[in-house]
Design goal:
mainly alpha; PTS_Sugar-EIIC/EIIB; 2 domains; 2 strands; transmembrane helix; membrane; sugar transport; two-stranded antiparallel ribbon
Length: 442
């Protein structure tokens, strides 16, 4: 026990000496700082959107659940109520997480403008308008013109971030070089500010509409789908452990850079996972041997679902920084139902190497452990389709119809928590140092 404690103490010291300084330099870089602070603005939106989605999607399957007790009766009534009022319940989700790229553009560009001591609001409006010229082009239908909001969701986040950063850089360059409409000296800054960004706005529109059209000509996809276009040939999936590890680790990498990792790979993985699940369910109903280990949401429930809950546990029980503790409390309701946006944008995990490194390690351990536990027969294979909002340990149990799945899940969760402890402690201290520097600067 003492040896284990000494190991963690040495590891913690190594983290503080080697990793934290690097993380601090990354965090203090102007553009990465603007990205971090801009995403932090989104925390209230992601919490509200997550609660909305949770209310509209109770973890109930009306075809399989029977009103055999009071709790099941409550869940069934909740599901029936959610079905009746789904359109109303999902309004907050559709207008927060559903169009989150709009808020990303505004938040990131606003913070970067502030770092350059520019008029933040007019410049952030420029970035938003530029982004909408690429991702929110109205589509003409018989009933009128409509904007396809699917291009404004998490899948377009990477494009939103790039446009937010580059458009402000263009604005900053032109304003610094006095390439702007100059107002008389007596005009108040609040009036002159919008006119300063007029010419830069025109340049931004021309540049990004031109780039978008060029992408369409070369790839048949616009800027919002460019990343998927580049990486989709590299993502080939089979049901083997090595290929699944590559895909899930790639998902973590995408999330690190602010790209919706699940959207990136789902077009390829969903048909495979769903087909495997159907084959497993048919075999289960026929009383035959279940063929596929990786099926349904296996890679999520025994992968990132454990990782995010390990982060949540550390936020609430390991971290001491007031901001991180507050975030941990706010994220509990949504995270328990597998809605992790408050953690992704609140911690944030985007461009955060102190959450990225342990996430890669834990996902690899989790999937390998769950796969081996299944392959040796300790845990049954996934054969049931379960609502994705069901809390992960229960999901593991119901999807396999095997209580030992909970044992495997809990063991992996404990391992994840232990792995994350030194990283989250280091992040905790980094946050304290940043807050002290801000206080001293003020």
């Amino acid at each position: 026990m003492n040896n284990l404690k000494e190991f963690f103490e040495r590891f913690q010291k190594t983290m503080e000496d080697k990793v934290v300084p690097v993380a601090s330099k990354i965090a203090s870089q102007r553009h990465l700082s603007a990205l971090r602070d801009g995403l932090t603005i989104l925390i209230p939106l992601t919490v509200i959107g997550g609660i909305s989605l949770m209310l509209a999607n109770p973890p109930v399957d009306l075809e399989t659940m029977k009103p055999t007790n009071v709790f099941f009766q409550f869940l069934i009534m909740w599901k029936q109520w959610a079905n009746c009022y789904a359109d109303i319940l999902t309004i907050p989700f559709n207008l927060t997480i559903g169009i989150i790229s709009i808020y990303v553009v505004l938040g990131v560009s606003y913070r970067l403008s502030q770092s350059y001591e520019m008029e933040a609001f007019p410049n952030s409006i420029t970035s938003l308008f530029t982004f909408l010229c690429v991702a929110g082009v109205p589509v003409a239908l018989k009933q009128g013109n409509y904007i396809d909001v699917s291009n404004l969701g998490a899948g377009a986040m990477f494009t939103a971030i790039i446009i937010a950063l580059l458009s402000i850089e263009i604005n900053h360059f032109m304003i610094e070089k006095n390439i702007k409409i100059k107002m008389p000296a007596g005009v108040p800054p609040m009036v002159a500010g919008p006119f300063e960004v007029l010419l830069p706005m025109v340049v931004n529109i021309l540049v990004f509409i031109g780039l978008n059209q060029l992408c369409i000509v070369l790839t048949n996809n616009g800027l919002t789908n460019l990343v998927f276009t580049i990486f989709s040939p590299l993502i080939s999936a089979t049901a083997s452990l090595p290929s699944m590890l590559i895909i899930v680790l790639l998902t973590v990498v995408f999330w690190f850079f602010g790209i919706h990792g699940d959207n990136m790979v789902s077009a390829i993985t969903t048909p495979i996972f769903t087909g495997n699940l159907v084959a497993n369910l048919d075999a289960y109903n026929a009383g035959k041997e279940i063929p596929n280990i990786i099926a349904g949401n296996f890679t999520f429930i025994f992968g990132l679902a454990i990782v995010y809950l390990a982060i949540l546990f550390n936020l609430n029980f390991v971290c001491k920084n007031k901001r991180l503790r507050s975030l941990g409390k706010l994220a509990i309701p949504s995270s328990l139902f597998n809605i992790n946006e408050p953690l992704v944008f609140g911690v944030p995990t985007v461009l955060n190497i102190l959450t990225f490194i342990p996430s890669l390690i834990c996902v690899a351990i989790d999937l390998t452990g769950a796969y081996l536990a299944t392959s040796v027969g300790f845990m049954a294979k996934t054969c049931m389709s379960v609502p994705w909002t069901l809390p992960a340990p229960l999901y593991a149990f119901i999807s396999t119809m095997d209580y030992k799945a909970i044992i495997v899940w809990v063991i992996l969760f404990i391992i994840n928590v232990i792995i994350f402890v030194p990283f989250m402690k280091s992040y905790d201290k980094q946050m304290d140092l940043e807050e002290q520097n801000i206080t001293q600067a003020e």
